[in-house]
Design brief:
Length: 284
């Protein structure tokens, strides 16, 4: 598998005792938007997580690095682009990468030799929308009953997404291995909608490789489970896991984790009045 290593020079400098960077997995589209969001800022000083490129995944890359630093690990971080969610889990479990820089579902790794960090998104907090190609009015204004007759698309390695769709009576579910391909399949008309977290833009829309997606209006979905950074087994993983625990707990107490997700549009006040299709899964 081809890997492209990109040194996060703007984020960290080498610690005096460091001999190697901490290598972490990140999808290419997330890395691209993260670099837009970072915009040359000092990672340690960021408290406003809004701006171009801000979304759930990209603020998690910042939170990962901030937690490490707060936990006492000042090593450089090297991002390894791994676009397959399933492959990133394997790379970390087998110790070839130290961690994922974006969160994973706890349920996806419960049998893994890798470990999970303290939760970033706790049980009952994960609420998402259905998204479709901008300008597709028939889908943008569809009801759940109408969506059940259409074609959804997701990455079937995202087992929680598939299970949640199926629990809502959505049966026509196409598969694509990356989000970029999901967007292209929506653009080509090979699928009608997908499920994704809300974004901070005025219309909550976003672009993936030039394809603009917007939410289906008026409905939202709760997903079961918690999300965590995945950390490799072994001594290096122990060091990373311990630092993340200390840092994430401090940021949770400060309210920084919630602020980051709010700035990234994940906790989104614009959908407070929207119909929650499965309220029994929501804790707030």
């Amino acid at each position: 598998m081809a890997k492209f290593l990109i040194l996060a020079a703007a984020a960290f400098c080498w610690a005096a005792v460091s001999t190697a960077a901490i290598q972490v997995a990140v999808p290419q589209d997330v890395l691209t938007d993260y670099q837009r969001l970072l915009a040359g800022r000092n990672i340690d000083e960021i408290r406003d997580y809004s701006g171009p490129g801000s979304r759930r995944d990209t603020v998690e890359v910042i939170l990962f690095q901030q937690a490490l630093r707060l936990g006492g690990v000042s090593d450089a971080v090297e991002f390894v682009t791994v676009d397959s969610y399933a492959r990133s889990l394997i790379e970390v479990e087998q110790g070839r990468l130290a961690a994922t820089a974006t969160s994973v579902w706890a349920a996806d790794v419960k049998a893994s030799a890798a470990r999970v960090s303290e939760p970033l998104i706790r049980e009952g907090e994960y609420v998402v929308g259905f998204y479709t190609l901008a300008g597709n009015a028939a889908v943008e204004n569809a009801t759940l009953a109408e969506l059940r007759q259409m074609r959804a698309i997701t990455n079937k390695a995202w087992k929680n997404d598939v299970a949640t769709m199926e629990s809502l009576g959505i049966r026509h579910i196409e598969n694509a291995p990356t989000f970029a391909l999901i967007a292209r399949m929506l653009q080509s008309g090979r699928a009608d909608f997908t499920m994704v977290s809300f974004k901070p833009s005025a219309d909550m829309g976003f672009e993936v490789e030039g394809v603009r997606l917007v939410p289906v209006q008026g409905i939202k979905v709760a997903m079961p489970g918690s999300r965590h950074f995945l950390v490799a087994p072994g001594a290096e993983g122990d060091r990373v896991l311990h630092a993340l625990a200390k840092g994430l707990n401090q940021m949770r107490r400060e309210g920084r984790i919630r602020r980051a997700y709010s700035d990234g549009g994940f906790f989104n006040r614009k959908v407070d009045g929207w119909l929650l299709l499965n309220p029994s899964l929501y804790r707030q």
